[in-house]
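Weekly sync notes, structure subgroup
Attendees: PM, AL, DS (notes)

Item 1: joint prediction request from the bench team. They want all two components modeled as one assembly rather than separately. Inputs as received:
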Amino acid sequence: MSDAGADASILVVDDQRELRLLVRITLQPLGKIATAASAEEALDHIRRVPTRLVVLDVWLGAGQSGVEFCRALKNDPATAAIKVILLSANGNQPDIDAGMAAGADAYVVKPYSPRDLLARATQLLA
Amino acid sequence: MLDATLPIDEERRLAVLLNLNILDTPAEERFDRITRMAARLFQVPIALVSLIDGERQWFKSRVGTELAESPRSTSFCTHTMLQDGVLVIEDASADARFASNPMVLADPHVRFYAGYPVAAPDGSKIGTLCLIDRAPRQFSEEERAVLRDLACMVAHEVAARQLEQALREQRESEAWLRGLLDNAPDGVMMLDESGAILSLNPHAEELFGCASAVLQGRSVHSLMVETIDGIGAALQDGQTVSFHGNGRRFDNSIFPIALSVRAMRLGGQRRYAAIVRDGARRREADRVIRESDARRSRYLATATHELRTPMASVLGFSELLMKRDFDTKTGNELVGIIHAQAGVLISVTNQLLDLARIEAGGRPGLRIGTHGMGVLLAEALQALAPQGSLERVVLTLDPAAAPVAADPQRMQLALVNLIGNALHYSPPGSQVDVSVAPVPYRGMAGVQVRVTDRGIGMTEEQVARLFEAFYRGGAMPEVPGSGLGMAIFKEVIDLHNGTIAIDSAPGRGTTATLVLPAASGETP
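Output from the run, pasted for the record:
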């Protein structure tokens, strides 16, 4: 599923192929982008490849959720510096609060404008 | 002819007379014996108990006349009522007030009249006891005194009659109240100022598991596990305190209780009216509502997710296409994704609407008719035809199977979802068996529909969550669908009083067995 490039510093994690493609094309101007379909795949990638930004869907189907994965990343000193943008279809304040409490640097509600997502990512990488 | 002027308390007098409920009632011996006695004592042909209504005088008791009533305008008695003592007219034809009265000129040819007012218990004059003769005569002081005594006897009978009536009404009202309390579906108690039980109804006895005689005098506080605050002098008359906690039965067992106590004043003393209710039913109802709320809000969150995800594709890719340049191949691929995701959007929306409609309509929303399962299945298969692969379905129909009572549209929707799932989750080209057979069902005739595939099967967890809205099992993400199909299927079958059994194991395929009541055993 993953098409990680060895020099990529951005990782897109989503269980849906179309949305992985959407984020990948959206963030293309920022450099090479790797993708993963699950938290497990993403962790495996991060361990191998230096990563600066993870764009992470909250809903990853079966397995670990995006919020849990985000918390794990931020709690591990080895990965705590990686910026995380959470993508979610749930825009309720409690959901947003839960995402931010897990250490996310930004919380973007679907559907989103690719231009806005690119702006947030650029800002976090600056 | 001279009209008698009205008494000054006419309005009140009439109200009292009306409230006695005596006008136009059958004759009563208690009055008849007095008029009979008067006629004999005074040797007159006519004796009456006359009640003066608004426009007439009506005779509660009469001796010597068939007349039941006569106009008030020509009444002698209405004059009697205006004064306190006896009215005596020795010769009406010689009295200017009555000489031209039709009662004098024609039948009953009144010449002599003597009347005495009859008062209601409150003193209002309601009529008279009167004597009439067709010849003039004199009336001595002694005779006047006897007439007065007889009139007082009439008044006493009026009072006695009213008392009996009030007593009867009170008895009826008591029986009514007792019936209400004895049959109230909640416990009702009366407490004294200290909270001790003065009386309680059978439901309260039942709740506390103890007879009324044992509970009387016991403090309501001893029947509760927790301390009840608020019952006391601080509570104003008419104020209510409610309490939810645990009650203690006489055998010391504990049960959830809801208690409402209202302070009041009865006979100058502080009393409390209390309602006790078994809290278990309420708690159970609360739990069901909470669960259904939670399910609904989970459902809403999932529905939002299922709609926003394809929308993210549609909006995101279309914005990229507008803002950036892509080569033709990539551009086409992106347009293809937009198209496919828009298709997902509409299919999820349709299924959400289907489910909402079925749920909201409930059983009354069904248009039940008698339908052969073969026809329903044929229609369902026809609806599935555009997806191809219909040649994989092998239909076996037992002609002995009775028709079912079903809403054909809903049932078809359910069958489409069931058979569609079997086709989607099994290898291309593999066979899906659909069979219909008669079976007994809850002691009546039933129809069984069995759908067997040779597909990937399901784990126990997947089977357990099969009917959950938006649950997709996760095994085959490439299979299109909203995750609502089986929820719709389940909802429709439940509404038709059917049962569903799923037999499945990973790699072993799935058999869904559906049993519906036959039409003959069902009242639509």
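Discussion: Chain B touches chain A at residues 301, 304-305, 307-309, 311-317, 319-320, 323-324, 334, 337, 340-341, 474, 477 (CB under 8 Å).
Action: AL to compare against the crosslinking data before next sync.
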